[in-house]
Amino acid sequence: MSYPRILGFAGILPFYLSLLAVLLWPQSQLALVALIGYGAVILSFLGAVHWGMAMQLPDQTQARRSYVFSVVPALLGWLALISPYQPALIVLAAGFGWVWLREYQHPPATMPAWYRQLRGTLTAAILPALILGAIFSG
Fold it and tell me: How many CB atoms lie within 10 A of CB 86?
């Protein structure tokens, strides 16, 4: 297994540890804050990855579109951080789904094929944690 894969799968653990805390201690605001905070950080990270890929694009028109796209995940993460728990988790789930959909439909020329595949797998693993968190936060 490749190093990025190992790290990617390890990065799923905080989602599920936070969800487990939400399920075990339903009154724990810390568990929800942990789930939302980690989700916002990782969603922002995905935007940063796209910023990095945009810097490698020779076509400035395509690069500009990629730069604009790359800041949206951070804005969604910020919105989640200032929202009530349930809407925050829905925003994060929608954000992860939207980033994956865009990567799937319009992968940047600089995106390695292995990264695209890994992101699909990781997104499929992350979304249930966020959705279940939203269900059990209300």
Answer: 15
Q: What is the rounded distance in angstroms from the CA atom of residue 35 to the CA atom of residue 21?
A: 9
Q: What is the pLDDT of residues 23-53, one digit of tens each?
A: 999 888 999 999 999 999 999 999 999 999 9
Rounded-to-5 percentages of helix, strand, coil across the chain: 85, 0, 15
Distance CA 112, CA 47 (A): 16
As a whole number of angstroms, the distance between CA 138 and CA 26 comes to 10
Residue 28 has, within 13 A of its CA and on its CB side, a CA count of 17
| pLDDT tens digit sequence for 82-122 | 999 999 999 999 999 999 999 999 888 889 999 999 999 99
Q: Distances from the Cα of 86 to the Cαs of 4, 6, 50, 109, 135, in angstroms?
A: 31, 30, 27, 36, 7
80, 40 contact by CB (below 8 A):
yes
Residue with tokens 């929202």: 83
Q: Give the number of C-alpha atoms closer than 13 A to the C-alpha of residue 14, restricted to the C-beta side.
A: 14
The length of the chain is 138
| Report field, pTM of the whole predicted structure over 0.90 | yes
